[in-house]
Amino acid sequence: xxxxxxxxxxxxxxxxxxxxxxxxxxxxxxxxxxxxxxxxxxxxxxxxxxxxxxxxxxxxxxxxxxxxxxxxxxxxxxxxxxxxxxxxxxxxxxxxxxxxxxxxxxxxxxxxxxxxxxxxxxxxxxxxxxxxxxxxxxxxxxxxxxxxxxxxxxxxx
Length: 157
Description:
157 residues; mainly alpha; two-stranded antiparallel sheet; flat; 2 strands
């Protein structure tokens, strides 16, 4: 499974918005152009994503002086599944589980099709467990110090 560029850019843009807005609901707005500049996402693409994310209720956009975008709710209350679905629609690994889709040549005889809902739910659940706040935070470096030498251990240099 691979995300589309737009879904990837949406996650990057939302992460930058969360960092700029301090990950707090109700913080001051930031301009979409500034988000585009900070992330390297082309300006028109950033504008398109801001519109989609605002329609999905993840961002609030305001026009005029002092306008811009801000998180619609706290970063901890927004997850990766929300962001991806705002751009791509419901998470589905195969098209046969989408309502009204009948473009599979195996339809009617496929024994796996009834189980794709469980698979899709598991993928969505995993993505829903990753909050925007965790993506906006500085990554934690994991370092495990070496175990101390015990008496009688041979030490080689």
